[in-house]
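Sequence of PepSY domain-containing protein (Paraburkholderia solisilvae).
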Amino acid sequence: MRPILVRLHRWFGIAIALFLFIAGLTGAIIAWDHELDAALNPMFFYARTDGPALRPLELVRRVEAADPRLHVTYMPLGIEPGHTLQLFVRPGTDPHTKAPYTLDFNQLALDPATGEIQGRREWGAVSLARLNLIPFVYKLHYTLHLPFTHGIDTGTWLMGIVGIVWIFDSMIALVLSFPNLKAWRKSFAFRVKRGGYPLTFDLHRSGGVWIWGLLLMMAVTSVSMNLGKEVVRPIVSLLSPLGSTPFDDPTLVGTPQPGKADLTREQILEAARKIASDRHISAPPGALFYVPALHTYGVGFFAAGKDHGDGPLGNAWLYLNAQTGQPVAASIPGQGSAGDIFMQAQFPLHSGRIAGLAGRIAVSGLGLVVAVLSVTGLMIWLKKLEARRRQTRAAQIMPDDALTDAPPSERAKRAESVEHIASPQ
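Predicted 3D structure, token representation.
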């Protein structure tokens, strides 16, 4: 059984090493995405003027009135002092061509005191320009910037499958690291003084053993991030009932009534406040988004600047029908079945935000460790591959019966030659 597991670990590791190396390094960076982005692009994050901020809904109204080509899809409802108001937008429909307008941006940064647009960018664009660098790295982390193919998000699926293989490989690695009770000490040791290949081997094996639980957690949550709807939710639902959102179950939205206009943002926000009060949500409305395809508004509840899901289980969200303002679903931290709470914990665990600053530091370090494990795994494989090639060449030089009749001195010379070829340097 062990030879089979060794072979599986070898080929699983080779298959996913490059992907985990990229995911590890980018994950170490995006644990600090907001801070790094702000440091690189202060004009996009910090307001030029110090005057009192206008209401976010008024700022959005002005933006849409000034540029009819766009519609705001996501807006914060609170503004951090001294910061810009950052909006996400989508192109509207050209009434002449009936096709979407062409926009070269999907995110705006406004001065909240004047409504002036301080910056525009295409979040997630394939670009290493300073303005786009952190969003580029963020999207690289979970999609590799691979394109949609026949309506399939190939990058998201690929990295989700990598996560699944990683889970199985982690289980195999743990079994291989503890072949018997006598060898358990070796699986935790680092032969630092010997250096070279022994240390490389220990960094890979023992390094993985020491933090095996964290690595498994990261593998599981990576699948949840990429393939939550397709893989994780169906599995969890076998063990515990799950509540749904319009993203998981579009039938929750219902059929829009022809000829009936959507409610205004103000009306949706007022309806959301009443629902939040009934559900004892104490945080203020923090953000509002609209998904045209689902005909749904979402309202999040958190203080200004807390939109990153800080806290044990993230922020509360209510989902409302765009025409009626009636609630269609909700995701409230700590509420629901055991399965619901498990799903709520996936992003906070994956990002480290479940443990605040300490958790983010740990996740950033864990990303670097994943990259190191990927590199050392490949180094071990290349070393053993070279050793196997040496053995093959040795066998070709001296077959088992080649020196049967050779004198002792000749056999010694040939054996010494073979040993030199077969032994790794």
